[in-house]
Amino acid sequence: MRKELLKYGMQTLTKNILDRMYASMLRIRMFEEKIVELYPEQEMKCPVHLCIGQEAIAAGVCLNLKKDDYVFSNHRGHGHCLAKGSPMRPLFAEFYGKATGCSKGKGGSMHLVDAERGILGTSAIVGGGIPMGVGASLASMLKNEERVTAIFFGDGAYDEGAFYESFNFASLKKLPVVFVCENNFYATNSHQSARQPGCRISDTAAAFDAHGVCVDGNDVIAVYKAARDSVSRAARGGGPSLIEAKTYRWKGHVGPEADFDKGSRPKEELDYWVERCPVKAFRAFLLEKNVTTPKEMDEVASAIKAEIDDAVSFARASPYPEAKELLEDLYI
Amino acid sequence: MGKITIVQAINMALSEEMQRDTNVVIIGEDVGKDGGVFRVTEGLQEKFGPERVVDTPLSELGIIGSAIGMAAYGIKPVVEIQFMGFIYAGLEQIFSHASRLRSRSRGRFSAPIVVRTPYGIGIKPPELHSESAEALFCHMPGVKVVVPSTPYNAKGLLKSAIRDSDPVIFLEPSRLYRSIKAEVPEDDYTVPLGKAEVYQEGKEITVVAWGTMLHRAAEAAEGFDCEIIDLMTLKPLDEEAILKSVRKTGRLVVVHEASKSGGLGAEISALVAEEAVEYLKAPILRVAGPEAVIPMARLEDYYMPGKERIRKAYEKVMLY
């Protein structure tokens, strides 16, 4: 096995790391699929933006981060939190609008927070988290703390001025931050080519004198390696990187349904990307290379299933927030 | 024609105005092929082509700013912002430029844009999808602010907004989008900006409201002799309509879902205090949202002024 991995230029990728990549991706996939299963019950009281199909990016990036490194996420943030290590209970509870949710049942799926794991709070504003991520990385530099910040955003956020202003500032100050653009080609239902003339997001980095790289976002190893380079560059004072990871979301912009019947996207496009499922492909790779046995994989899946079942029961059994919660945690 | 929703009435107004004036252009995220988040612009791109129903990148600042430039050139852009919380990214262009272009160019240019956006609580998404920040816009000189409350006035007000020579922020209560239906004439008619309407006549309490809260205030009025005023245009305020009613009833309750402090209720209260205090029999009361971020799901019901809170205000002013 060792030899095979060497052949792929992955001499530092141990079985442990590879297994964790798989487990992380599978955990996101099964989590999201549970939402798809439960959503029609109409007990989850919030819009959900699912990341099925995009799991390799969150998994590949976050495996390079320490627990106290910061992650800034967006409206499609379940995967980022899970990959950063967030437990499932407060996430499911949040979707159910319960007091035990990570946002106390007040924010829902678009407003996730996990202070212990450096997730400072996500929002629905596309691109809104990018400047804040830059600010956090500037603070960590000013305080001389060895922290790297990863900012996840989509190809839609690349349209927003906030991205350019932030990336420019980050590069000017050589901040320890990694910009991760999950390019799934769609902002709601607008294709990238209808919004951007060049469609070469990673090339932008050059204009800001920073490092840019474009990877196959469905190849977890490719993402992992790009992120490893970028995180170590950031940590040693080399400034920001822009990783563009090309991928595809299998579901519609919002909700558990596919959106092909509405004519938003061609079905052939989905078929093409489902063929290139990041989880399935990596599973096949691990089996082919004899890194992991089917039995080990089944055990991983059972453990995740147990975690999901526990989290859903917890969420269902939790109380709703009381009315007074409306006035808690405010500035005034 | 049967009864139609506010969504359909707005679509009708847009379609008619585009037919009437080839300078009217729609611009926004997913407004064309997709017909917008709430399907308000559905079918318009097919009808008028992609040059007049323009899909844009995700760029609220860029969209609103482009509309200002287009308007100065002579086009009549109708911008759609997907949710009111997303308008904040474009405020700079509205406040720093649209609102003052006529003054800045010393009367040579103006920016007659319309910015439409779904507004207010009502469909249970969380913050930024449920904002009611109308007072921000009312505060800025040079911007008109309009909130329809029925399919009829939605169509008529939007037509007036498009024909107006000033920037208009057109706030569409998302809770009402499909929840009320009414007959709407297919003819060309307008509802004038700057004019309030007596929604329900009464003698003892003047109730001022708009959008979703107009209907709440009316529901709560059973058993009270309320004169309910639908403001419709929040800026400029129809001061005469408010004062006339207060001079008759001697009592004023303002109902809005935005938070109380610095809200439009404060402006209306001050107007009445300045101009009609001698007619007042009771303190002016405001029923408003709390100083809080709009929460999700069932907490939303605690946030939004409900029938009971409104009735309490009516009861209280009637004690005097």
Could you explain the architecture of this structure?
The complex is a heterodimer of chains A (332) and B (320). Chain A has 332 residues and is α/β, with parallel strands linked by helices. Chain A has one domain (6-319): Thiamin diphosphate (ThDP)-binding fold, Pyr/PP domains (Rossmann fold, 3-Layer(aba) Sandwich), CATH 3.40.50. Helix content of chain A is 43%, strand content 10%. Chain A has a five-stranded parallel sheet with strand order 1-2-3-7-6, sandwiched between helices. Chain A has a two-stranded antiparallel ribbon with strand order 4-5. In chain A, helix 2 (15-38) runs antiparallel to helix 4, helix 3 (55-62) packs parallel to helix 4 (78-84) and helix 3 packs parallel to helix 9 (220-235). The longest helix of chain A is centred in the N-terminal third of the chain and has 24 residues, at 15-38. The radius of gyration of chain A is 19 Å and the shape is globular. The N and C termini of chain A lie far apart (60 Å). The mean pLDDT of chain A is 94. Chain B has 320 residues and is α/β, with parallel strands linked by helices. Chain B folds into two domains: 3-183, Rossmann fold, CATH 3.40.50.970; 197-317, 3-Layer(aba) Sandwich (Rossmann fold), CATH 3.40.50. In chain B, the strands form two sheets. In chain B, strands 2-1-3-4-6-5-10 form a seven-stranded mixed sheet, with helices on both faces. In chain B, strands 7-9-8-11-12 form a five-stranded mixed sheet, sandwiched between helices. The longest helix of chain B has 15 residues, at 6-20. Chain B is globular, with a radius of gyration of 19 Å. The chains are: A alpha/beta (332), B alpha/beta (320). At the A-B interface, loops of A face helix 3 and helix 11 of B.
CATH architecture type of chain A: 3-Layer(aba) Sandwich
H/E element order of chain A = HHHEHHHEHEEEHEHEHHH
Fraction of residues in β-strands of chain B: 15-25%
Determine the mean pLDDT of chain B.
96
Strand order of the largest sheet of chain B: 2-1-3-4-6-5-10
Count of all domains of chain A: 1
- Structurally, how many domains make up the residues of chain B? 2
Count helical runs of chain B.
Answer: 12
Strand element count of chain B = 12
> pLDDT average of chain A, as an integer?
94
Q: Give me the strand/helix succession of chain B.
A: HEHEHEHHEHEHEEEHEEHEHEHH
What characterizes the major β-sheet of chain A?
Answer: 5 strands, parallel
Q: What characteristic shape of chain B results from the CA principal axes?
A: globular
SSE class of chain A: alpha/beta
The largest pleated sheet of chain B is described as:
7 strands, mixed
Helix percent band of chain A = 40-55%
CATH class of chain A: Alpha Beta
- Distance from N terminus to C terminus of chain A (CA atoms, Å) equals 60 Å
CATH homology group of the largest domain in chain B: Thiamin diphosphate (ThDP)-binding fold, Pyr/PP domains
